[in-house]
Known about the structure:
The protein is α+β, with helices and mostly antiparallel strands. It has helices at 7-58, 121-149, 155-180, 374-379, and strands spanning 60-62, 64-66, 73-90, 96-101, 108-109, 114-119, 183-185, 190-195, 202-203, 215-230, 242-246, 255-262, 272-278, 290-298, 304-306, 310-313, 316-323, 326-331, 333-337, 341-346, 353-355, 368-370.
Amino acid sequence: MTVTPNPLNNFQESKPSQKKVTLILIVIALGFAIGLFLHFFLKHQRYEELVKKSSENSTIYVQTTPINKQAENIPLSLPGTIQGVNEAQIYSRANGFVKKWYKDIGQSVKKGDLLAELEIPEVEKQVQEATTNYDLAKKAYLRWQSLRNDDAVSQQELDEKTNTYRQTEAVLKRLQDQLNFREVRAPFDGIIAKRNINIGDLVNTGNTGSAQALFTVSQNTSLKVYAYIPQNYSAKVSVGLPVEVFQTDQPNQKITAKVTKIASTVDPATRTMQAEILLPSKTGFLPGFYVQINFKLDSSGLKIIPTKTLLFSVKGVEVAVVKDGVVERKTVVLGNDYGQNVEIKGGIEADDELIINPPDSIANGQKVIVSPSKAEKSSK
């Protein structure tokens, strides 16, 4: 007997299978949606982290300094040579030979003391000739004066003899004065700083030939030093300005003094102004010492910044200024250079905060965080 299949039974059997497939598809779609959601969520989270890290990396930590904080006094250092308050080089006033010298280096002398004696044979011969001429002219003058009293000669003849007599007298006096130049004497109290002669040396007068000083006399009761101020600092130096004087090999042993005199005019050859500093007694210095002179110039009214705040670019010299955590680069005009500090003529404001050692890559609008300095940290 043949059994005919019932289509209704097949439909009833396939219905659970379709539900199972649909369920599987729904689970797959849901899993895909969840995976896609997680992918975009994590990607967005990573993006926010990258943005945050990028923002952190673009923000740099800097230290700043206000204007004039490190330059209350401008240090101007110039070289100088210690001198006695009076110092003179003694030259011969006549050509001759050294017969004898009486004072040596280091010896004290009084004004008028005999330092050396010269032989000047040419003048001595001229004095002998002038003496002979003077004696003859005097005898003739006296004889003709007697004859004139007897009215034996005219007044004109007596006048001629009188003029001759007076001329020879004047010549003899001039040569005798030159003969006195064989004695070289000290012009003031002091010590002999140099002796440049020996017995037998040929010497020339001080204004002819290759004259050499016979002696150098120095008065060391007081010492002074001259400094030559560059013209761009000349307006800042005045009488009474405090200075420090020291030897370069002993920088910690400084002598405090003041400017006592200034030239008040600039030498057009060197573009400098001469200033004199009178040193106190018992400094330990000796004439001829090479020293450094530190002038403490007042910086009030000036804009002085450290040189380590400068940036050099194609635009010129710039500084990086911080305002509300944002950088602004400003082009500045430089003034006097004081070594570690420099004067700014224009381009910044008095209340600007400048970045110390700014990187060349720092840009306008860049955010920065101002970190406290070591001094500020230690005070806390």
